[in-house]
């Protein structure tokens, strides 16, 4: 965990853009997203609903649903440029080098197929050389590894006969069984209750510990990010607005949006605040992004700075501070900090 | 599951009972009475009385119904007013021909409709989908006799590839029997496939929106595996139920196709019995067709629940 | 709020609307063509559909006989045009009968529920259990084949399925908030039925009317073909088929010519009902 900074890069995303064309209008749901994930790293991706997190991860997998389309960018997994692959090659890579853990395993598992055969499908698709006779042992093995109780019995069951937590464990098993370089977990715990959530998070940490798998962890919960992630990407309106090591970002957010997100977390243990700060206003329409800063309309810093023109006239760049942190705000830095405090 | 099945069966019983009452009352609705209808108005009164007694028409209705039902349950539908032969014998004679036609027609329509419906339903709104959807809208407008005439004109009268009409029992001459089945089965199958394709499409559209489909893609499964093992397999229960309803079109279609191709099945019997006012025969046929429809749908519903493991708990 | 389930697929795809105005245009033009045939066809053709000319049987198209002559030397075009009138009347009559049964029964059962619903629904189920062509054939068996019987038979064979549709639509409408609101505001049942339920049914009835008109044209033809519908020599699309069927091996073109208007008319109805359904669905979902 300490050496991630020097570890090799597993995933490199550059200038990714995804557009949905609907009845004449075009929504650029993901607009110039770029980031890296290093070996053994857990990277969190947070943002409000509709900020483009899921579409980004679907683009990584090459699974953006119609009428969506990846219009620009490059995705490199280790040394493979995914954009250059044929559909078949991409399919061969999915589930093997890059696997998805769905948010609601109960809905993502095939309801008519028994757990065992369902886990086996991945083996059959990606390891055709593995003799059929050896599959059951492999299946039991992986189910044991994800801590599924009594796997010998579960393999014969249907998904609906398992609890939500067990379903999620099965989904994790399907994700990790072929030792992928990258796991993409899209809100893998939202469908579960709190104790089970903690167990699944622990399971993901264990997977990383044991196999050194990198994880891209999508959530809209800052607390979870703080708990398990090494680095965080904050998404707003189809763009990354801030990124950096979790500890740094959480203690000293550079972007007003990140600050607002953190302010919205009810303090642990302490008294609940008089009013829970949710971020007032709504994100802009992806069919017509504003010309300047996309957060301008809701930005408190801008208000405190006396509504400078720059915010609405010029789109801020995602500027790097040279020490692994980036922020997309004209007024990032200590001057702004001073005003807010 | 057992309780579910039992419940379904119990639900079908009153339907079958109602159907039997309906068929029974049906004949009694005839203006005049069957014997006069059979012999004509100027018939000898003693003969009429004799026949009335023979058919039990002089007894109170509930009693008549009881006897009739008891007979029906033993497979005795009485005697045809026209030919004086036992109705069950006549019908049983015709059943192989109709089953052969309906079975072959069903196979043809499944072969056309399932792939078309899946292709359209997997990508709703795509060009292929609008093409298939328009084709089914047109297909629904083409009556079976029109289609059959076209096929007959083309393959039998012009190209002379197959005989135009006729029937040979399969047991007598399998090859010729199949050759003769070709056109009628193709006609019937093509006539039904638009319905079936639409049903398939909507079942597939529904399933294709389920999260397990994109997840299957994310697992890197082959497209074939996804459309068959995931989409079609999950659409199967509702498809099977829909298939039960299609049997009505199959029955109606086969009546027309049998007339067109001179196919000696039960459909010819239906038309014949109505034109000849052979009421007992009409009654028996209504009962058999209706009963078959109810039973087939019952079986389809049971199959539907067998195909969906989630039903077992409830 | 998005549901958890939707996360994987992001948003549920905006229900893919088939925007094919071309098909609507085709449907409307075909429908217009059929309407013109019915209204001015006989006058335009100017031939007597019943004038027999044995010396001129099976004449090909051309001259005074646009579509040739039939087995009795009658003008095929005018038989089709006059037949269109009969068929259209039968179709409209049949749909009217089915509607007249289905709406009151469907509204009654769907709105009242309770034992009325239970009993009527059982009866509907029973009729639903008999394939509709057989119901029609049964009716014809009772009264003998004729124009009136055909109307009655078709009307009676459509009501069970139509009643089911109306009933479930009414059940849906009844549970809408505006109906509750109307009841709370003290509107009587009858008033609620009139203002909320019946108006709510209009789109469904519109669509079903076109659908059933298509069915009725097809079924009139099928019955005619079987010799159970309109009886020759009376002109109708169905009876034309019955006449041509006897010569199907020698003159199949007569059967084809008799079938083409049926295909076109039903295709028009299918296209119109489909685009109507699309439009009304789109309106409902915003
Ligand atoms: N199928 C689709 N059709 C049209 N637009 C879509 C579709 N899916 C996503 N979008 C667009 O992409 C934007 C981003 O959606 P996305 O699902 O990535 O958000 P998210 O950050 O994952 O939100 P959530 O936290 O609710 O999961 C949406 O606001 C929408 O405009
Ligand atoms: S650029 Fe202006 S509006 Fe945008 S985040 Fe910074 S201060 Fe706020
Ligand atoms: Mg999402």
UniProtKB/TrEMBL annotation, chain A:
Give the ABC transporter domain ranges. 11-262
Keyword Transport carried by entry:
yes
This chain's source organism reads Acrocarpospora corrugata
Record-stated family: Belongs to the ABC transporter superfamily.
For membrane topology, the record states: Peripheral membrane protein
One record GO biological process: peptide transport
- This protein is called ABC transporter ATP-binding protein
The record's section on InterPro entries has: AAA+_ATPase (IPR003593), ABC_Ni/Peptide_Import (IPR050388), ABC_transporter-like_ATP-bd (IPR003439), ABC_transporter-like_CS (IPR017871), Oligopep_ABC_C (IPR013563), P-loop_NTPase (IPR027417)
Question: What NCBIfam families is this protein classified in?
Answer: oligo_HPY (TIGR01727)
The record, for Pfam families, names:
ABC_tran, oligo_HPY
Q: Which UniProt keywords apply?
A: ATP-binding, Cell membrane, Membrane, Nucleotide-binding, Transport
A cellular component annotation (GO) from this entry: plasma membrane
Does the keyword field hold ATP-binding? yes
Which compartments does it reside in?
Answer: Cell membrane
In alphabetical order, the GO MF annotations are: ATP binding; ATP hydrolysis activity
UniProtKB/TrEMBL annotation, chain B:
> Where in the cell?
Cell membrane
Tell me where the transmembrane regions lie.
9-29, 101-122, 134-157, 177-197, 239-261, 281-300
- Give the main location: membrane
- Taking the record's annotation, the residue ranges forming a coiled coil are none
Q: Which Gene3D superfamilies match?
A: MetI-like
GO cellular component term, pick one: plasma membrane
Source organism, top-level taxon: Bacteria
**Topology in the lipid bilayer:** Multi-pass membrane protein
**A single GO BP:** transmembrane transport
Indicate the segments forming the ABC transmembrane type-1 domain, all copies: 95-300
Keyword Transmembrane helix found: yes
Report keywords, A-Z.
Cell membrane, Membrane, Transmembrane, Transmembrane helix, Transport
For the keyword DNA damage, the answer is no
Give the record's family classification. Belongs to the binding-protein-dependent transport system permease family.
Q: Tell me what this protein is called.
A: ABC transporter permease
**Which organism does this sequence originate in?**
Acrocarpospora corrugata
UniProtKB/TrEMBL annotation, chain C:
Q: Which PROSITE patterns does the annotation name? A: ABC_TM1
Q: Where is the major localization of this protein?
A: membrane
Organism, by scientific name, is Acrocarpospora corrugata
Q: Where in the cell is it found?
A: Cell membrane
**Identification of the protein by name:** Nickel ABC transporter permease
Top-level taxonomy: Bacteria, Bacillati, Actinomycetota, Actinomycetes, Streptosporangiales
Q: Does the keyword Transport apply?
A: yes
Domain of life the protein comes from: Bacteria
Q: Name one GO cellular component term.
A: plasma membrane
* Transmembrane domains' residue ranges: 20-45, 88-114, 126-159, 197-218, 254-273
Q: Which InterPro entries match?
A: BP-dependent_transpt_permease, MetI-like, MetI-like_sf
